[in-house]
Each structure stands twice: as C-alpha cells, then as structure tokens.
Amino acid sequence: MLTRPDSYQELSGTAIVTMTIARGLNNGWLSKEVYEKCARNGWEAIASAIETDGKVHICVGTMSSEDGSYYLTRPKIDDDSHEIIGLIFAGIEMEKLVGKTGRSE
C-alpha cells in the first residue's frame, strides 16, 4: 500500500525494477540519459533498507486482498531467500553499471 505511510516499506518490487533498468542500461537497450538516474535512485532505496548488520527486513509473501488491513498486518521476516535474490541481482547489475560509468555516487 504505497500511499499509506503506516504500510510496510516495499522492497522486492523495487529490487526487480532496479535490476531490470540497470540490465537494460548495461546491454544498451535503454538510454542512459533517460534511465540511469532511475536505476541509481532504485539502488539508493534498496541500500537504505539494508541494516548495518546486513539484515534485510521483508514482509512474507502476500496474496491479493481488497482488505487494506490484510496488507498492514503481514508478518515480517529477516533475510527471506526468495526476496533477497532480487536484491542480489540488482546489486550485480548496478556494480556492472558503476563499472561502465565510472561513477559510484
């Protein structure tokens, strides 16, 4: 629930979209002028969600519901492998992108 500040922070979708944009940039499929800032912003959001001890807090897998309270009460877990893999793939693509552009900011 992206419009609710009391909702759990979305991360897995951000990781997948960031990975996809970075991969598109790395393969020359997307324009750097248009999409590089998007990839960098996505990575900044991902990096800010990783705790100093490396833990990533994630909401368990979620089905769909029309009941908003369903989303607000989903259990949280640390380092779920199904979610972490998206973060890893995003990191790999961003590392390639930083290597190509020579900029890490």
Automatic annotation (TrEMBL):
GO terms for molecular function: hydrolase activity. Gene3D superfamilies: 1.50.10.10. It comes from the Bacteria. One of its GO terms (biological process) is carbohydrate metabolic process. InterPro entries: 6-hairpin_glycosidase_sf, 6hp_glycosidase-like_sf, Glyco_hydro_88, PolySaccharide_Degr_Enz. Keywords: Hydrolase. Pfam families: Glyco_hydro_88. The keyword ATP-binding does not apply. This is Uncharacterized protein. It comes from Hufsiella ginkgonis.
